[in-house]
């Protein structure tokens, strides 16, 4: 008669992993600690795949009096999930990190003719067992053709904000990609009009102002209750402005407060690298700001070791039961093995 409590032979315990039959309670506990691996070699993996953010549009001085501010760039599209069906031990997966889009030039003084939209960010791709994840680059902020007319924001992972106008408010932000981001905000109109805010991962961009001399239009409102961390939490559930009180410890264990996947930040501010943030549109005779580059981030069991290809720029840290590998630039492969 078999020993009670076992079906078949008694399992052998190892520090790096165990095989055999587990109770549902045991499985739930192991999954919560990212320590459960299915028999087929799949890894319980929490991952974030971000494209580059869109560039902001340049500004203009209208008849030497008013100053228009270009639309904000949209955040790069973000794909995030936790599952045990996407990545397996011993398999190479190819990653290509997307760059941030460039800001467009200022139209200068006079009638402000010829300001184009900011450039869209570049897609980030990551292969997995089911195919290829593609995070879509953020949309560029809307520019304007002349002193009374402008352009809609460009579509993207999150859409860019609509361009400013002297007397027309019908310009809309670009559309976001379903599941990856939100639309940009519509434009403001007036002598000191601002373009709309870029869309962010958690919220749409704000509507531009008619006379915003302080340049406060931004991307979708940030969620100050969201704090990323390797042990869990709502990372990165942000949509809007740079807020140095927010600690992004999942993306940056030092907790420097870099907000990720936000729409265009303050006017004229170049987005942080490896955040997917949109670039700020710019008021007056200045070019729009560039969007932030993308990233791929993995959180997995500390009992595994990642092998990252030499053409990728990466960092790996250990916090509690988890390791975190952040891919910041390049194109190459990554794989995992039992440590």
Strand content: 15-25%
* Mean pLDDT across all amino acids: 75
Shape: elongated
Sheet with most strands: strand arrangement: 4-1-8-11-10
- Round the Cα radius of gyration to an integer and report it: 23 Å
Helical content (DSSP H or I, runs of 4+): under 10%
Oligomer category: single chain
Number of helices: 1
Whole-number tally of structural domains: 1
Low-confidence stretches: 1-6, 12-16, 213-257
List how many beta strands DSSP finds. Answer: 12
Instruction: For the record, give the distance between the C-alpha atoms at the N and C termini, rounded to a whole number.
Output: 37 Å
Largest sheet composition: 5 strands, antiparallel
What's the order of the H and E elements?
HEEEEEEEEEEEE
- Structural class of the helices, strands and pairings? mainly beta
Description:
This protein has 339 residues and is mainly beta. It has one domain (51-296, 306-339). The protein has one helix at 24-32; strands spanning 45-50, 60-62, 66-68, 78-83, 93-96, 124-128, 131-135, 295-301, 304-308, 313-319, 322-329, 331-338. The strands form three sheets. It has a five-stranded antiparallel sheet with strand order 4-1-8-11-10, with no helix packed on it.
Summary of the model, kept short:
The protein is mostly beta strands and 339 residues long. It has one domain. The protein contains one helix and twelve strands, in the order αββββββββββββ.
Describe the secondary structure blueprint for this structure.
Blueprint: H1 24-32, E1 45-50, E2 60-62, E3 66-68, E4 78-83, E5 93-96, E6 124-128, E7 131-135, E8 295-301, E9 304-308, E10 313-319, E11 322-329, E12 331-338
Antiparallel strand pairs: 1-4, 1-8, 2-3, 5-6, 5-12, 6-7, 8-11, 9-12, 10-11
